[in-house]
Every structure is written in C-alpha cells, then in structure tokens.
What does this fold into?
Amino acid sequence: MGLLTDPGAGSGKFTQLLVASHNKLCVVLYIGGIIWFMILAHEHFNAGTYFSENALLPGLVKGEFDEDAVAKVYQSELFDEAARYPDGIPFSWLLAKFRQLNLDTYTHNFTLNSPLGLGMKYTGKNIYAILRAPRSSSTEALVLSVPYRPPSSVHPGTVPSVAIMLALAKFFRRQKYWSKDVIFLVTEHEQLGVQAWLEAYHKTTCGRSGVLEHGDMMGRGGAIQAAINLELHAEKIGYIDVKIEGLNGQLPNLDLVNLVHRLCSKEGVRHTFKNRENSNYRDIYKEWLHSFKILMAMVTTQATGVPNGNHGLFHRFGIEAVTLEGFEKKGRGSPTLYFQIGRVLEGLFRSLNNLLERFHQSYFFYLLPATDRFISIGMYMPPLGLLCSALIIKAFALWHKMQEDPNKAEPAEEEEAEEIKRAPSHSEKKGSSNHFSLVPVGMTVLLTHALGIALLSSPQMLGSQGLEYGFSTDTSIYVGYLVMTLSMLFIPLFACRNGGAKVESWTILNIVALLELATLLLCTSMQNFSLALLSAVLYILPSLWMVPTQSRVLGTLQKVVWLLLHPLCLLTLIVMIYTALSFPDEPILELLEKGLIATRQALVYAVVDSYVYANWVFPVATAILLPNWLLFWVVLHSRPHQEDLKTEK
Amino acid sequence: MMVVLHTIFSGLLCLQCISSVICTPQKDYFDEELLLKPLPSGHVYAYFQFTTLWDVDFEATSFQHCHLFPRALGEIVGRYNVQELHISLTEGLWRHETWGYPVHDAAPGAELWAWFKESTKNIDKTWKELAGALSGLLCVSFNFVDASNSLNPEFTFRPAGIVSSGAVNSSYLRYSTLPREIVCTENLTPWKKLLPCDAKKGLSTLLNAGHIHNTNYHSLGLHLRPVCRDTTCSQMSVELRQTVSLVYDMVILGTGNQDWSIKKLFGIGLSGACPLATMSNIYIDIALNETGAHFQLTPTPPAVITSTRGGHKSKFAVYDIKALDIDGMFNIAAVYSSSRVYGVNIPPVLFANRYIIGYGQERGGIVTKLHNGHWQALDVVYLENIPWFIPLYLHTLKIVANGKEIKPLLKRFIPGKARARPYYLEVALRLPARSITEISLEFDYVFLKWQEYPPDANHGFYIGAAVITSLLPVGRNYTGLPQDGSTITSSFNASRDGYLVQLRTETLIITMPTPDFSMPYNVICLTCTVIALAFGPLHNITTKRLRLKNKEQNYVIRWFKSKLTRSSEMKEKQS
It folds into this structure.
C-alpha cells in the first residue's frame, strides 16, 4: 500500500498512463473547464429564479403609495437647498423634514484619519431617521439608504432619491402594519459614510484600528434584516439597474434580488442587470452571447472585490442589501415616474416587513446571466474544479516521475556525488526515494512568504518615507513596490546557488508551488468565485508550463510570460487596457501616462480599501499570490530535470 | 328524585352563602379609573386601572368566599402561598425618551414576579406550579417559566406591599420574563373576566380588542399585594390592581388631525359606570394644553384638579361617571385649535437604550446606555437578565460614564448554567450628573442542541429586558402611584422624598449559529459523515505501507510478559 510513499504503488497501468500523458490531460482539463463555464450562460444549463422564502409574499397587496406629488415638491426644495451647499450635505433641511414627520431623527459624525498621509483628517456626517414600528418592540429593522452627493461631486446626483425617500417616509408613517423599524439613512462621502454608520451601529471596527473612527450614535432599531440603497439620477427614469456585488465578492441572498426584479415587473418598471435587459433572440448563439456578456460583466465586477454600490458594505454584517440605480430616460417612450418607483419600494418594504425569519433560504452563492436566470454554486464550481485539478494532476505526475527517476538516471547521480558529499546530512538515510534535501525548499518557501508579509506591511512606511522626500503617496508606494519586487526577482540567484540543493529539491518546490496555487484558487473560490475563476484562467496554463528547460529560447519565453503575470505587472497591464478602452481617441503617449497614473492610484486604493473596509484582495495578492509567483520564478531558474535533459540531448 | 335532591341541596348551599355573608360582611370596594394623557410626541396615553380592595386577612381560607375579588385568581394565590404577585403582558416598547414614564413600566412580552410567604417550603417547585396555573388562567405561555429562566434579584425588586418581618429575604422572590410572548385578544378576554363587571358595564366596555391591538403599545397588568387597612396599619387588606396601558398614535388612526375622543380611541362611547364600583372616574391630563398645542374638551369638565408633585405642576380634568347623567353614549372629545406641530422633545431625567454589538457568530457584546439628565448624581440598580445560552464573561463588564470608567457600588453575579439557570448580574451604580453611562458585557455565541432551536429558528433568540431601578428626586414626567396609594386619585399632590421608577429596556434579538434545518443541510451532514469515515482508511492507504511484522519482540517486553505469565500461573496454582 501507500499510494504516495511506495515507489512500487504507482506502477499500475492507469497511473502510468496518467503520468505519461499528464500534459495533454492537463490541457484538456483546462480547456474543458473553460468551455463548461462558458456553456453555463446558456439557458439550457442554468435555472430560472424562484422564491424560496414563502413569507415574502411579493406583490400580494395592492400598492397604495400616492405621495408622488409630495416627492416632486421635496425634490425642487432640495435642489434649491443643495445649491446653497456646493460640497456639503444640507443637513438642517433634511433634519427638519424628518422631524416634521415626527420620526426619531439623529445625526452621526465620523472621522477618517488618512492611513497613508501625514495625519490628515476628514470628517463626515450622516443623517438618519427611524420610523418606530407600531407592532413590535424595536427588535428588528430595515434600512433605506441614499448616498447624498453634493452638486460638486463627480458622480451623478442623487437628489431625486432623497426626495422619494422623504415621500416614502411620509407615506410609511401613516401605515399601521410595520413590525420592523424602518431606518431612513442619508450618507455622506459615498461608501465611507455607510461603512462608518454600520460600524457605529454595531460598535465595531472592521478595518485597521484608528483609521476610520466611526463615532457614536444615539438611536438604534434592533437587528437590521435588509437594506435597500437607492440611487436615482433623475425624476424621469428610463430603467432601474439592480446592483448586487458587495465587498470581497459577497452577494445578497438571491431571494432579495428576485424580489426587486419581481416588483419592478409588477409595477411595469424597466429593470436590468448590468445595464442589460433580458434578450429575446431567436438565434441560439446570439441568445447565449447576450447572457454570456452579462455573466462576464458580473464576474469582472465581483472579481475586483470592491462593492459597486453602498449596498456592498452591509453584507458583512449579515444584512442583505441591493442597490437600485435609476438612470435618466433618454429617447422616446413613457418614463418611470415617482409614482411607480414609490410603489416598487412600498412593495419591497412590505415584503421585507412580512419576513418572519432572517433571509436564510435560497442562494447566497450564485452568478446571474439574466435578470431571471441564475447559476448556483453547485453548477459553477465543477468547471473551476476541473481547472484546478489540472494543477493537482501535474503535481502528482511530477512526484511520480521523481520517484521513478533514481532507477533510470543513476549515472547522473554519480555526477552529483560531489555535492552529496558536501552536504552529508541529507545523504541517503531515508531510503532510495528520498535522497534529496527539503531544506532549500523550505527555505525558499519561507523566504518568499516572509517577503510577501513584509510587502503587505510596507505601504504605510513607504508612504511616509516618500512624503519626506516630497513625493506624492501614490508615486512613492508604486515606485517602492516596483523596486522591491524587482529586487525580489534576484532571489533565484541565492536560492539556486544554495549548496546541497539537488534537482529533486526543485521538483519538490515545483510541486509545492503547484499545490499552493491550487489551494489558493479553491479557497478564494469559496468567498469570491469570480476572482478565483479569472486568476485560474490566467495562471493555470502558464504555471503548468513553468518547468525548467534546457532550451535557451524556450526558457526566455517562459520567463517573459511569467514576468507578464507578475501581480504588479498584471495590475499595470489591466489598468492600461482599461484606460485604453475608456479613452479610445487619445494618442498612445498620453494613454500611457494616464494609464500609469491610474495604476498608481489603483494600488493606493487597494491599500486604503484593505485598511478602511478590510478588503482582502490586496493582502491576498501580496502575501500569498506574489510569494507563489516567486516560487515558480525560482523553479524556472533552477536546473532542468535529468530526464528532460536526456530527451533534449 | 335526583332533581328534587339537587334543588334542596343547592337551596341549602344558597342559604349558607347568605348566612355567611350576613355573619361576616364582606368589606370590599371596587374602583374604576381611566387616565388620558396627550403626550408631547403627539401620542395619546390611556391608562385604565381597576382596583379591588378587600378588607380581609391574606390567607388561603379567605379566598374561599369571594365577592368582588376574582375567585379564580384568589384560589391560585391561596394555594401557592403567594405574598405578592405582579404580571404584565405587553406588546410594543414604551419609549421613555419621548413618552416620559408610564404608571407601570413593563417589559415587552410577558413578565411575572412573585413573592412567596415565608412558610413556603419548596419555592422553585411552587413557583413552577404557580406559573403553570397562571398560564391556564390568562392563556400565556407561563408554563415555560422554570428555574432555567427565573432569577431572584437581591436589590431590584422589593415587596410593594406590607411585609410582616423587618428584613427582606430575596430567596422568597422569583422573577421571570418571556420576551418572545405575543400578547393578543386571547389574553385580554380572560383578563377581562377577572373584573367584577366583566366587560358588560363600566369603563371596561371600552376595551375592545379591535381597537386595543391597533395601538403602538399595549400592556395588560395584574398586581396583587397586601396593604394596610388603615393608617395605624394594624390589619391587612388585599389589593388587586388590574391595569391596561395603551398608547395611540393619532397619525396612524388616520384622520389627518390631532383631535381625539373616547369614541375615536376605543371605537365606542361610554354607557355608564359599573354598578358595583364605588368610584368611576375619567381624568384627562390638561397640562400640555397650556404649554403645547391648545385643545378644548367637550363636554367641559365638571372639575379640574391641580396637582403638585415633586416640584412639577400638572392639571387634570375630572369626569365622575357616577355623577353624570348619561343618556345613551357618553363621549369626551379633545378638539385642537391648530394643526399638528411637533415641538422639541424634552426627555425625562433617566432613560436607557440597549443594543447588541459586533457582527458574525463568534463573539458579541451587549451595551446598555443610561442617560442621566439630572443635575445631580443618581443612584441606580441595574439588573441584567441573560438566558443561559448566552455565556457572558464578568471580567468584560465595563462601566464607562462620559468616557471615564467608573466603579460600581455593588456587584452581584451568579454565572448561568446550561439548561439550568440564567446569568444573573445586578450592579448598583452612581451615575454622574448629566452623563451617559455605558454598561457593556461581552459574550460568546454557542451552538445549541438541535432540539433546542425554536420553530422559525432563523428568527433569532430573544434576550429579555434589563431592569433599571432608581429613586428619582424630581417628579417631572412621573405618573406612577405612590406606594401607600391604591388609586390614580392617590397620585395627585402626592409629593414624596423620591419617586421610584423601574425602566425596562428593549428586548434584543440575536442570531445564534443556526443549522439550516433543510433538505440540503441534511444531505451535507450525511456527506460530511461519510467523508469523515472515509478519510481514515484513505489516509492510511496513501501514506502507510504494509510490512511483515518482526516476530522477535523487544527484550524488555518479553521479560515483562514472562513475569506476568509466571505470576498468573502461580495464582492459579494457589487457588
């Protein structure tokens, strides 16, 4: 017995076949995985959405919202008021409006201590009002939030959503059926405001301590069950886009997403996902392509790990949340007005009010290829499993080859006898199969990972150092990282010259690297499937190929490809491509400059996100992915395997 | 034959009844009162109190013959040796910050506390039996009350009535809450049956389920205690107070204006007083009439009482129903002269908030914020009532007032025991003047046994309200009755040294780690078991190799073995 330790165990026919043709098999698995995933977008391979939670009773009652005229008045008043505060929030007006409705109204102050600057402080203020449910004792709550954007903001304004929120508050106030408190929240500074508010509500700090001071708050309304974030850009709405991707790729319960779509269709509001409506092509290919585009749009958004709306920050606290973004009606046709929007929101909140339990049914892990179709975790995991199994099979094959070698490559061993004498401690104590040293492997793994940790903890130091020499934060961090990663490229020089390291050691290192990558990808897929999928597609095929060769040309090509896949290089490339796509008319040189600036900023944003929101894309990339990349880099620079050597001769 | 015998027998019984009544005249009185108080927040607070006073010794035998006193309750009280009994059934939360203090504070859900007489032997058993009996009487889930959710707090609860001996021994006290209890008509009906006039006549006719359950807050109460018969206090009387607190939101009642009337609030006018009642009064607090929005009462009140209490002046319009000549339905209406304006809220001296902190299902905390708006320091007693499934740590108890940590004056803690007793923490504190004090405790989330999850397991688990007791030096916003009084009338001009308030905070819901309880969950459980079972052999197959075992054993072991066999042989020989 002993499949892995017994050299004789793998001599079965099947194993032999596996080892002999593992390269082809890996490629087949890789391509198969990708094709499988692509097929999932087709409607024959995914499922239609349905309501799992019975208590939601979507759209069971007739909408009664009739305060649309009031919303218009609020809107015109707020436009006047907003003009008086070009970069602030007109909180006195908002407070007065909420107080007139006799709601419990509170303000919440927060401070951001810039983590990378020289003790810069930014302050913000949120306003919220709580409608106390007449039918319960404030044990549960629902949130309707709107990010307030002053006229000077670069983002499209949200004044209409504040107006409809106030009108809804007025309408909700008259109803007797509330059994959950309704919290109307107006936040400042986009996601920062919501994050601070949530941290204060739960009195915890998610990111680094001392970065975001969440402050204290007076009024609370029990456990928040669900939240709706509203961003309407105009009074006359063309369509409503439902945004779901949250921090670190977390998604809201599918029931909530379905609920929004269902109520939109009930009230006759055009609703989209990823700004695309459901298609109705006759052609099967066109149909698939349409769904696949939506699917890929979701995958790319989710993979960033950055929430695409304020809803994304609620998920961590076990609060299901979505953003409804309303875009202005362009062209002909009848627009959606406050009346319909109000009815949709009324229906949403009544359904959520019906909930007896927290959202726990339906799916938390899914991908959407259309507004009414979904791919569940059970459907999308096998393709990724296929992709990752290629890595594991490669590792297995390498191991097996190494086991077989001693018998075949005895002459080569004699050549290395000198080396063995130099390092007698790892001589053949453990039997014929284990006559290599694990020390250099362990050393390399430890060294690269320690460097990764060092990189992870360096931004603050880099930022402050750079500021002393008069560089901006983003430049100093980018340049710092560039220098550090470039110097890390010389690790193979030390690692490979390390005495006592035999060819087998580097094979072992290769196996370790392959297995680490597979583990990393599979673990990531549990939390953020999209990120795992994209990295798997990018990294798996090259990493299978990263076996040292004797051929100069091939070796150089390998190194070039692998350098391109360096996380920092990859970031630069992706941002460059994105910039080029966003500004297609600019000349090349300007594009390069723009792209470089954007890259530097992207790096700083990633760092800041990890400090403020505890976004883990940056830590994972620096502390695990980069060390893993370095392991392969070391493997590339090691001496090729004897067998390969012979065949090439 | 049987019928004749039966008639004779019952006739005899009747005679006996009459004779006993004549021999020992039942001295008992029944008063019904209603207090209506418009609150500054635009709500209307309606407080009904039905008081039965019975000049009788508080003994089991006394309850065998009842006149106005409800016999059903009397039998229970007599049988279980109860000295004092307090029940409240509440839906909604009393918002102290905007509404001030109610006459009786009650925690959301059901709350029950009782003092037993000193002669009681097995108190835990009697307590469980009492709760069971009351559960039948009032259709409440008191049958779930047992030692695992009952406390005997040392300081928070004192006997409200008279006590025979000087020292108070809290081991005769039991306190329990059921925060998940939903109060509904099924509780109101049996509660109404305890009244002498039932809901047939008098103020209790106003208690219509359809209108009561449309309120923002409603609370049924039942308070039984022994009181002094006269000022010398040489003899005891039994006092039963049945109360209903209601808070109406005029916006939800939906007429577009602030006006209210008895008919609008209760859906029906008043047809007259209960004929058995000695006193039948309606009081309307008209203090707000002068400071806040002005309203006019129709019909004009026959009398107005000015009451000064703890430096706070208030005015009440009094309608004596017995003296009124009611023809048809009687109605009192308040008509406002201006439309609704919400003024700035002036919160009462002491109020509290409570909330859960943290996220995830590993560690959490409970924070209670006490607001002291008084210009002096206030002494309070804080009683924490945490169920056994929330293991909290005493070392994490932190009391921070205005950013500075303060030391409690007294601390009592009995850690909970899984499925046997709740966590009991009682802290006496001195709140600094004009301060916000935070009392925080941390706890762990634990897994329960799978049968211990309630239906709708994902709804969450309730943590009962904390009780904050204090003796306020000022009477602002205070409506409670003095300890020596029985009726609402006794609270007029009743200035005392201090005004006892017992605030109940919010109840909390926490989400415990809950199994899925669905079909896929079961499948996952099964698969995990199979994988766990398969792991061992698989691991062995892949990592170990079979080898022939060396027959030759270690010398030491062989030596021991030979010794052992020899000794056993010796023993056999001996035997």
User: Anything to note?
Assistant: Chain A has two domains: 65-282+305-357, 438-648.
